[in-house]
Design goal:
39% helix; 490 residues; 15 helices; alpha/beta; seven-stranded mixed sheet; binds adenosine-5'-diphosphate
C-alpha cells in the first residue's frame, strides 16, 4: 500500500525560492520519515541562514510589486490557487498522511479545512477597507488606510502541516504581503506541494517561498527571520517554548508577531448534559490526529453525579470505535505519534501517573504490535494534581478524567493553567451555558460541540496560548497596519 502511494504521488524534494526548485547552498539534505512505517519517504534540502537570507531578499523584491496589486487581482490569483487545491485534494491528503501519519479521512478533512482559508482570504482580499473619520475641526478630512506590512516569516508545525500554512499564507498574500515559510522538519512535503500549486495558479515568483530545514538549523533560520530588517512580521504556530523565544527575538526590533501556542483545553461535562453527545464530542476532540492537536481536549472534568456513567460510556466507545493502524488504509482511524520523541513523552507522562497511583481504565501502553510509534487509546481516572498528566499538554491519545462537584470548583480547575486556547463544555442548562462560556479563560469555546474551527471564525488563544487571531474577518489584521492620513487646510 505504501509503495502504491509513493509511486503515484508526486513528492517535491527541493525547496521553493523565487519560483524555482532549489537545493541548499551547502547541498545538504535531511531525511523525512513516514511515522507509520518509519521508512524514509525522501530527502529535502537542509537549508540554513544563507538560504533564508536569499529567500528573504527575493521576497522583499517581490513585495515591491505585489504590494501595489489591487485586492481584486490578488483575489483572482488566490481563487485560482484554491481551485487547484480543490482539484488536487485527494493527492494532497495522501502526501499529508504519508508524512504526518494522520488517518487518510482526517487528512482529507484537514485539506478541506485548509482550502477554506484560501477561499475565504480570496474573498477578504477585496474587502481590505480603510475608514473615513468625521473630523472634529473644520477644513480637514481624516482618513485611515490599511497597508500590507511587508515580507513575513511563517513558521509552522507538523500537526497541521497544510492548514497552518494556508491559514497564514492565505491572509498574508491577500493583504499584499510576501512570505518566507519554514515548514516543520517532519512534514515539508505538503508545504512544497501547495507551493507548486500556488505557482501553477500564477501567484508571482517570490510571493511564496518555502525554506526547508532540519531541526538543527531551525533556530538560526528563526533568528534570522526575527532579526532581518527586511522581514516585517512573524507568524508562528507551535510549542510555547519556541513561541516565547521568537517573541523575545522579535522584541529586540519591535517586530510584529502572531503566536498560536500550546493549549490545555478543559472538556467539561455537567450533569444536565446529553452524555451520548458528550461522548461523541470527547472522542472527536481527544483522539483526532491521535491527540496531537493544540485544541485537543486535554482534561476531562466530569460532575460527580455522572462521573461513573460517563467514564463507562467513554471507555466503551474508545474500545469499539478506535482502530489503530497505518492511516493510509481507510479502515484505521487512530494513527501513529509523529516521532520517537513524542512517543517517549507520552510514555513518560504515563509512567509518572502510574507511579502516583492513577487508575488505567483502558489502554496505557505502546501498541508495539502495530508499529514503533503507535500508542493505545488510553483512559485514566484517579488523577491527582501532582501528576504531569494533570498539568501538561499531553499531545497523545491519553484522556484524563477528573471529578468535580460544583460549577465554581470546575471553573477554578479549568482556569488553573497558564494556557488559554480552547475549552469545551456540555450542558443543557441555559443560564449555566452563558455563565461558563463567559468565565472560561480561553480564546475559543465549544458548547455541546467538540470540533469548532472554521475559516470564518477567529482562531487564537489568551494567556500563554498566544497573541493575535487567524482566520475570520480579523485575519488580515496580522498582516496590515493602519495609516492615518490627515488632509489639512482644505
Ligand atoms: P513541536 O513541539 O510541535 O515540534 P515546535 O515549536 O518545536 O513544536 O516546532 C514548530 C516549528 O518551529 C517547526 O517548524 C520547528 O522546526 C520550528 N522551530 C523549532 N525550534 C525553532 C527555533 N528555535 N526558532 C524557530 N523555529 C523553530
Amino acid at each position: 500500500f505504501y509503495k502504491m502511494y509513493s509511486q503515484s504521488t508526486k513528492i517535491m524534494d527541493k525547496a521553493f525560492i523565487n519560483g524555482l526548485w532549489v537545493s541548499a547552498k551547502s547541498n545538504k539534505v535531511f531525511e523525512v520519515q513516514d511515522p507509520a512505517t518509519c521508512q524514509v519517504i525522501s530527502t529535502v534540502p537542509d537549508m540554513n541562514v544563507d538560504d533564508v537570507e536569499a529567500a528573504v531578499t527575493y521576497a522583499d523584491e517581490a513585495f515591491q510589486t505585489w504590494k501595489v496589486t489591487t485586492g481584486k487581482e490578488r483575489s483572482i490569483l488566490l481563487r485560482k490557487w484554491y481551485d487547484l487545491l480543490v482539484q488536487n485534494q485527494e493527492e494532497l491528503a495522501k502526501i499529508l498522511t504519508m508524512e504526518a501519519g494522520k488517518p487518510i479521512k482526517e487528512s482529507l478533512g484537514e485539506i478541506v479545512y485548509g482550502n477554506a482559508f484560501v477561499e475565504w482570504f480570496a474573498e477578504e482580499a477585496k474587502r481590505m477597507y480603510g475608514e473615513i473619520v468625521p473630523s472634529p475641526v473644520k477644513n480637514r478630512e481624516l482618513m485611515v488606510l490599511r497597508q500590507p506590512i511587508g515580507t513575513v516569516g511563517l513558521i509552522t508545525p507538523w500537526n497541521f502541516p497544510f492548514a497552518m500554512i494556508t491559514r497564514k499564507a492565505g491572509a498574508a498574500i491577500a493583504a499584499g504581503c510576501t512570505c518566507v515559510i519554514k515548514p516543520a522538519e517532519d512534514t515539508p512535503f505538503t508545504a512544497l506541494a501547495l507551493a507548486e500549486l500556488a505557482s501553477l495558479a500564477g501567484i508571482p515568483k517570490g510571493v511564496i517561498n518555502i525554506v526547508t530545514s532540519s531541526r538543527s538549523n531551525a533556530d538560526q533560520i528563526g533568528k534570522y527571520l526575527c532579526e532581518s530588517p527586511k522581514v516585517a512580521g512573524i507568524s508562528f504556530t507551535g510549542s510555547t517554548a519556541v513561541g516565547k523565544l521568537l517573541y523575545q527575538q522579535c522584541g529586540k526590533h519591535v517586530k510584529r508577531i502572531g503566536l498560536e501556542l500550546g493549549g490545555n483545553a478543559p472538556f467539561i461535562i455537567f450533569e444536565s448534559a446529553d452524555l451520548n453527545k458528550a461522548v461523541d464530542g470527547a472522542i472527536a476532540s481527544k483522539f483526532r490526529n491521535c491527540g496531537q492537536t493544540c485544541i485537543s481536549a486535554n482534561r476531562f472534568l466530569i460532575q460527580d453525579s455522572i462521573f461513573e456513567e460517563f467514564v463507562q460510556k467513554f471507555a466503551e466507545r474508545i474500545k469499539s470505535s478506535l482502530i489503530i493502524g497505518d492511516g493510509k488504509n481507510v479502515q484505521f482511524n487512530l494513527g501513529p505519534l509523529i516521532n520517537a520523541d513524542q512517543v517517549k513523552k507520552v510514555e513518560d507522562i504515563m509512567q509518572d501517573a502510574i507511579k502516583k497511583g492513577v487508575n488505567v481504565v483502558t489502554g496505557g501502553n505502546r501498541a508495539t504490535n502495530v508499529g514503533e510509534q503507535f500508542f493505545e487509546p488510553t483512559l485514566l481516572t484517579n488523577i491527582t494534581s501532582n501528576m504531569r498528566c494533570y498539568k501538561e499538554e499531553i499531545f497523545g491519545p491519553v484522556a484524563v478524567c477528573i471529578k468535580f462537584k460544583t460549577e465554581a470548583e470546575c471553573i477554578d480547575i479549568a482556569n488553573d493553567t497558564e494556557r488559554g486556547l480552547a475549552g469545551y463544555f456540555y450542558s443543557n442548562d441555559i443560564s449555566q451555558i452563558w455563565r461558563v462560556a463567559k468565565n472560561l479563560e480561553v480564546g475559543m469555546v465549544g458548547v455541546n460541540e467538540g470540533l469548532i474551527s472554521h475559516a470564518e471564525t477567529p482562531f487564537g488563544g489568551i494567556k500563554e496560548s498566544g497573541i493575535g487571531r487567524e482566520g475570520s474577518k480579523h485575519g488580515l489584521d496580522e498582516y496590515t497596519y493602519l495609516k492615518y492620513v490627515c488632509f489639512g487646510n482644505l
